[in-house]
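Model: Ready when you are.
Researcher: Fold this.
Model:
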Amino acid sequence: MAEADNSPARSDQTDDRFDGLVVDEGPSLEEALTCVFDIQHHEVRTYETLLDQPASTVAELSSVLDRDRSNVNRSLATLREKGLARRERRLLDGGGHVYQYSATPLSEARELLRETLEAWTATVDERIDGFGPGSR
């Protein structure tokens, strides 16, 4: 007489459920930044431009990105808030000052991505542990 297997069927079925989530090629830098930091495409473009052109002013970025200065300022504020850009004040020879922006180096941004993703995963894991009747 054959024994009944009451264990949940997980191996093949579980792997099939995640096929759409895991792709052969990993996410691009833009996909990772937009997902983990909840930033928009134009903010990623600003970050990438800062990587290529450090110490840029808003006027310079506005010209390169072909975007209004106020929009560039908003993108820079978001990038600074997320830890992806830095601002330095430079004094002008004729008086006054200008702000120059630089991207957080890619090596630091990768670490920030990892830390943020790990913190999010820990939070989700805690929430999963709390799932139960009436927790919808």
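Researcher: Now this one.
Model:
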Amino acid sequence: MAPIKSVTIPRLELPACLLLAQLTRKVLNALKLKIDQVLLWTDSTIALSWIDTPPHLLKTFVSNRVAQIQELTKEYHWAHITSKNNPADLLSRGVDAQFLVNNQFWFQGSDSFNSLNSEVELNQSDKNYLSEFKSKDSVCLTVKTSALMDDVICISNNFQKLVRILSLIFRFINKCKKNSKECGAPSKMERQNAEIYILREVQVRTFGNGIHSLEQHGNVTPNSKLKSLSPFLDSQRILRVGGRLRNSILPYNSKHPILLPAKHKVTDMIIQYYHKIQFHSGPHKHCCITLDRNFGH
């Protein structure tokens, strides 16, 4: 009879370590003596490496035995002994009984036994050691902010509703990170942060090359459509119109309106919002109000 699946030598050595742990516990309980230190020796570096590993990381067979060994020997110390200094190897290789009866090495161990290094020499690169680890399936979750923007824009055509939804989303994220207890309607600061996020996302999608050029070189390329507007990035990385108006006494938002694409859903939503709050005013007045409130396109 032969086993269906071959068993590795380290797998056979591990139950021997468990047997040693069980026998040691029984002998010490029977002696009822105060023992200062207990050293358990084995010549299997792989078994020692498993014993030094958290059981939940290992496969069932090894995990169960390692858990038992760790529980039985938590107050003891495991150590490595070479085959040359291991008395148990006499029986493993087979010897005559007469030879064993008078063998000092069998009963007392090697002359250098007491001077052996008791530190465990882990062997954690051996394929037999690594093969007993549970396989880990890594899952990589990628969250794209552009996908968030697309999803939110599809919900509503109302700019203020879009701002409110994003404000609440960012509040939830902040709660998860900092355990914030803020509740109620979005604050002014939360709404402003949501507006900045919306504008930045729209600009990155539409004027991405220009923004990259400004970040890298401080100006747009000569053939850029934005060149005539002398664009620049403000402290919040929002793209604004530059030019000679910077020397005027006009308010900052009037001198440097935020750049938005003419044909974009968010731009349409902003125009519709100001058109509504100005009671459907004419195009000239509406354009002036929109520019005064930051936006230019």
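Researcher: Key takeaway?
Model: The longest helix spans residues 9-31.
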